[in-house]
Design goal:
By secondary structure, this protein is of the alpha+beta class. About 25% of the residues lie in helices and about 40% in strands. It has a five-stranded antiparallel sheet with strand order 1-5-4-3-2. The longest helix has 10 residues.
Length: about 100
């Protein structure tokens, strides 16, 4: 299952009340609009400092697409995979995708 959070969805969630997300979403501890950095090195450092393992970083049309993994309990079987899209112009997250 893939859950994608974008600016539109985030706005709808705020306007409509609480948004219930799977456990793995809370492990991300990051949301659309959060600042991670403008370069691949800055983004990598920011994510690694939050316990993410970087799997891949691609640059396309001013967007850094970063695939990461994080475990909630330190157990590899509990790992959740995430994809963040970061606008290089602002350094802010523009999309979060959570794969279960």
């Amino acid at each position: 299952m893939t859950l994608s959070i974008t600016n539109t969805l985030a706005a709808a969630a705020i306007a409509g009340g609480a948004l219930l997300l799977p456990f793995s979403a809370s492990a991300a501890d990051l949301a659309v609009g959060d600042y991670l950095g403008k370069t691949a090195a800055e983004v990598s450092a920011a994510l690694e400092s939050r316990g993410f393992v970087i799997k891949e970083i691609e640059r396309e049309d001013g967007i850094l697409e970063v695939e990461v993994e994080k475990t909630a309990s330190g157990n590899a079987n509990d790992a959740a995979e995430f994809e963040f899209e970061i606008a290089q112009a602002t350094g802010e997250i523009v999309k979060v995708e959570i794969d279960d």
